[in-house]
Write a structure and sequence with these properties.
Helix content is about 60%, strand content about 15%. It is of the alpha+beta class. It has five domains: about 180 residues, no CATH class; about 110 residues, no CATH class; about 140 residues, no CATH class; about 80 residues, Alpha-Beta Plaits (2-Layer Sandwich), CATH 3.30.70; about 210 residues, Phosphatase 2c, domain 1 (4-Layer Sandwich). The strands form three sheets. Strands 5-14-13-10-11 form a five-stranded antiparallel β-sheet. Helix 12 runs antiparallel to helix 13. The longest helix has about 50 residues.
């Protein structure tokens, strides 16, 4: 029922619109406004089955001759047939096709006009002005439908909207009913409404545009001055009480008609439209005007949204803090669950007691061996256990002669020592792996706790939105013909300004977008990311303060000679917070197995960094994970994380080759250290923090390159001889030199990453 009522209201509204526009004209003879509006409304996604009959009724009321009815039907068919063809073939209607169909819709008009000896100038003018008016309507309908009424229009859109209002005013001029001016009623009521719900400038612009539109049919300027006087009078008495602006309107009409004599004739019938519009305005409830005001302005809504954002950040900060405490508690519990391995002496004592109870119990020589010669027997047993533990087993040759000659269970003793020792070694390995797993989980829980605390501190402060800059940003973008439906500008920390704007897809790549945001925000801004919104055709563009530095990089790599798969893996990844990570992982040996090992290690490192974990936790966790495999396949890790905000580089190394920082006139060596990853459970990474300068080149290589040079100093001297400023050419030069050092043969896999800071 509600949908039917809405359809009826739309039909009546469009019928009235087409009725008015079919009466609108330029110099009486040219009437180019009704048929373009039909096609423009169809382009604006209005239902064709509503606007088509509305056009027929509105047009035929004014023009009901046989020729006019045929012209109207042909115009409607020129819209309906192509429209449903495009629906069937599922092909969207393009704008140029819309103009073609609009032109073809006037074939019947052209034929009847030519047959009726209509001046050819009028025919051509009607077609040209009609297509121009179609362009105007499409230009104003697109932003209103996409963005709504609440956002500022560009200059071109304001001009197009004004032309549409002029056309409506032109049609209303001829709609007088026995001297009762529909135009006056319409304009005076809207002046009261706009003044009460919006600002003075909108009121004056509307009054002026409607006055100019009334001149179009006959060049008669009679309404321009009265409409502007209406707007001034109403704006002066604009206040909460609606009676005062209504009385100001009536008083201004009285002065115009009886004192200034601006009309040719003025009687009671001319006064009635103003009185009627004032009465209607007073009788309409304030609540309805308040709804109109909300429709035309989103300030209150956006303020509420901003308050919700800050409230949600506060709740999120509290929950993240609580979650961090949970992870801390779980970390503590897991660390308490770790069962430390027995010392070597404790293990030997335990195995000795087990063997004594198993082998010697019930033996006739038990008291003689373990009481008379107790210490000697214990020492011999422990020595045998030590040999079995180290070599894997003992034999009859390992037993002392006096024990083998005296003990009747020598073979049984040897088997039991071997069995118990192997069982203990398996158990010890199992306990060690379990403890390592628990420690790994504990480290991850500790890392998650730290990560949660970091996130909590990031959302702890209230976001300060800058409404002034947001309004300026929308206005400035509109001036540069970039439609911005909404903008948010806020600060994060002391150095970072963030801006989020919603614009059309075609505006994203416009250079003016970044330039305008940079100008308004007072510092260079760069696009951080772009993602679609709920409304088709609009995207959300996030911009942030550009970091002090940026970087470019070059990569050069090659597997060892006679090999097809490299054992080296690398990662180049942009991290959150304007950081870049460069990493090389060199698997032990070369080929597919070494490549898989290094790829696993570098993949773990990359994902941990992207998640936001600290260096210590990352390398410790990766080391423990790889240590669990116990396959004697190790990898070196060489990581460089560069903070582009301040130019500080963190070098993290585990068994990797030395790195180098090649400046303009010098070259620094970042020496290697620590064991490769996966060798020892508790191996620590070597970390170093270095401040980089502009134009510095950071060079990290696998040992397949470094080992071709006699020493780090020799490679340092070679790097100083490279003159290119291109990091890719630099990396290629390093690889070529490494090949040359080995007479064109690669003994090991070679990888080189060169990063230039600027």
């Amino acid at each position: 029922m509600k949908n039917k009522l809405n359809a009826i209201i739309l039909f009546l509204s469009f019928t009235l619109l087409f009725f008015v526009l079919s009466r609108a004209s330029l110099l009486t003879e040219i009437m180019p406004f009704a048929f373009p509006m039909l096609f423009a409304l169809a382009w604006a996604n209005q239902k064709v089955w509503i606007i088509s009959p509305a056009y027929f009724v509105g047009f035929v009321i004014n023009n009901h001759s046989f020729e006019d009815i045929i012209i109207c039907i042909v115009t409607i068919l020129a819209l309906v047939i192509p429209y449903y063809i495009h629906v069937v073939i599922k092909k969207p209607l393009k704008k140029y096709e819309l103009f073609i169909y609009t032109f073809l819709s006037q074939i019947a008009y052209i034929i009847f006009a030519v047959l009726g000896d209509v001046n050819i100038i009028y025919i051509i003018s009607n077609l040209i002005f009609g297509l121009m008016f179609l362009f105007v309507c499409v230009t104003i309908f697109e932003p209103i439908i996409i963005r709504g009424f609440a956002y500022k229009l560009t200059v071109s859109e304001i001009v197009c909207g004004s032309i549409v209002l002029m056309a409506i005013s032109s049609g209303l001029v001829s709609c007088d009913i026995y001297g009762f001016s529909i135009l006056k009623l319409f304009v005076s009521f809207l002046i009261l409404t706009i003044s009460f719900t919006s600002n003075v400038s909108y009121t004056l612009v509307f009054a002026s545009v409607m006055g100019i539109g009334s001149m179009l049919p006959s060049n008669n300027p009679i309404y321009i001055a009265p409409f502007v006087i209406y707007a001034l009078a109403v704006s002066i008495f604009r206040m909460q009480n609606k009676i005062f602006p209504a009385l100001a309107l009536v008083a201004s009409e009285f002065l115009i008609g009886y004192y200034f004599n601006l009309y040719y004739t003025f009687g009671v019938i001319d006064f009635i439209p103003i009185i009627l519009s004032a009465l209607i305005f007073i009788c309409i409830p304030k609540k309805m005007f308040k709804n109109i005001s909300i429709l035309l302005s989103t300030n209150n809504e956006r303020l509420a949204i901003k308050n919700v954002v800050n409230r949600n950040r506060e709740v999120l900060q509290r929950r993240l803090g609580n979650l961090a405490e949970v992870f801390c508690d779980m970390d503590e519990v897991f660390r308490k669950l770790i069962k430390k391995e027995m010392s070597e002496e404790e293990a030997k004592d335990m195995l000795y007691e087990e063997i004594k109870d198993t082998i010697c119990k019930g033996c006739s020589e038990n008291k003689h061996c373990h009481r008379t010669f107790g210490e000697d027997t214990k020492k011999i047993f422990k020595e045998l256990i030590t040999i079995a533990y180290e070599r894997g087993k003992i034999t009859l040759l390992d037993l002392p002669s006096y024990l083998s000659s005296r003990c009747g269970k020598a073979n049984y003793l040897i088997n039991e020592i071997n069995t118990l020792t192997n069982q203990y070694k398996s158990y010890s390995r199992l306990v060690g792996n379990v403890d390592t797993s628990k420690l790994l989980i504990a480290d991850q829980l500790s890392g998650m706790a730290g990560l949660m605390k970091t996130l909590a501190s990031e959302v702890d402060t209230m976001v300060s939105f800058d409404s002034t800059r947001e309004s300026k940003l929308i206005d400035e973008l509109a001036v540069n013909n970039i439609i911005c439906t909404d903008a948010v500008v806020y600060e994060k920390g002391n150095r970072t300004t963030l801006a989020s704007v919603i614009v059309r897809e075609e505006d994203v790549n416009k250079l003016k977008l970044q330039q305008v945001v940079t100008k308004i925000c007072g510092g260079k801004m760069v696009i951080n990311d772009v993602y679609p919104t709920e409304k088709a055709g609009l995207v959300n563009v996030n911009l942030k303060s550009a970091p002090m530095f940026d970087c470019v990089f070059g990569l050069s790599c090659k597997p060892r000679s006679n090999g097809t798969i490299s054992g080296d893996s690398h990662s180049i990844e942009r991290l959150d917070g304007d950081k870049f990570m460069f990493a090389i992982c060199d698997g032990m040996g070369s080929g597919e197995k070494a490549g898989e090992k290094s790829q696993t290690a570098v993949g773990l490192v990359e994902n941990f960094y992207k998640a936001g974990f600290d260096n210590d936790i990352i390398l410790s966790s990766v080391n423990k994970l790889l240590n669990l495999e116990k396959d004697d396949m190790f990898s070196t890790i060489d990581v460089c994380v560069i903070d582009l905000k301040n130019g500080i580089a963190d070098f993290v190394k585990m068994g990797s080759a030395s790195s180098y920082i090649r400046g303009i006139d010098e070259c620094k060596i970042v020496e290697s250290g620590a064991l490769p990853i996966g060798v020892l459970q508790d191996a620590k990474a070597l970390t170093k923090k270095i401040v980089l300068n502009e134009k510095d080149m950071v060079v990290i290589c696998s040992d397949g390159i470094n080992d071709t040079f006699g020493s780090d100093s020799e490679m340092k001297d070679f790097l100083l001889t490279i003159k290119t400023a291109n990091p890719q050419e630099f990396a290629d030069a390093v690889l070529e030199k490494a090949f040359a050092n080995n007479n064109g043969y690669a003994v090991d896999d070679m990888t080189c990453i060169v990063v230039k800071i600027f």
